[in-house]
Fold:
Amino acid sequence: MHDKKTVLITGGNKGIGLDTSKLFVDAGYAVVVLARDFKNFPLQGNPAVQSVEYDLADIEGIPQLITSLPPIDVLVNNAGIMYALPYDGYPAEKVEQILNVNMKAPVALITEVSKNMVAKGAGRIVNNASIAGEIGHPDVWYGITKAGMINITKSFAKILGPQGVVVNAVAPGPAETEMLATIPEPRKRAIKSAVYTGRFAYPQEVARAMFWLATDCPEYINGTCIDINNGAFPR
Ligand SMILES: NC(=O)c1ccc[n+]([C@@H]2O[C@H](COP(=O)([O-])OP(=O)(O)OC[C@H]3O[C@@H](n4cnc5c(N)ncnc54)[C@H](OP(=O)(O)O)[C@@H]3O)[C@@H](O)[C@H]2O)c1
Structure:
């Protein structure tokens, strides 16, 4: 018998994060789901799931938040936002919001949860980046934060890897979630024509990759970012 492990999944209430939450529930984890809105959360009431209402734009509150939770064995930094805004019409408060949610919050969460991981000599962290962080994006701040996420992964693997913590990322191409609502139809068609299967990724496909990195993936895979783009950016 081993102790039940606890996973913290940001944005685990919908989209890719929800599918990830389901995989961890099925695997017997205690699942802490962090998001702002749990109105239509299908796992509400599941005894293995704790819903934590929190706005990740509040960076300063993160240390207190983590203190209030059980020790975290696995962190999935999944929450993220994207705006349909041009680079020359991007209000300063939106820049601050996207930097906070997509980049500063993941760093603050890693900083806090890794204390327990380092003390145990074990832990897993998975970051949801994006192909946008590799090839650029019309929402320039989205692309910048996702490139940041890939570098956050490498930097923390360097810092925490020698202490038993495995830190990896995924870089998905467009996946069928609410996030795609802001993309205009012609761009959607162009994106679909650039991949082998002619479709967007299913959120489960990203969730399964993140789950593997967070559980069974060999510890020798550390500081890596797995592309999930179906030929949109072969390398
Ligand atoms: N869908 C794609 O095409 C695609 C491609 C590559 C990468 N990704 C990445 O995948 C991740 C998940 O996105 P998704 O596609 O599943 O989109 P989604 O369905 O829109 O989910 C976004 C998640 O982030 C959470 N979130 C946003 N702002 C937050 C805040 N201030 N505080 C706390 N939580 C917040 C949302 O929860 P609440 O709104 O309830 O707070 C929601 O759970 C994101 O990091 C995204 O960048 C998505």
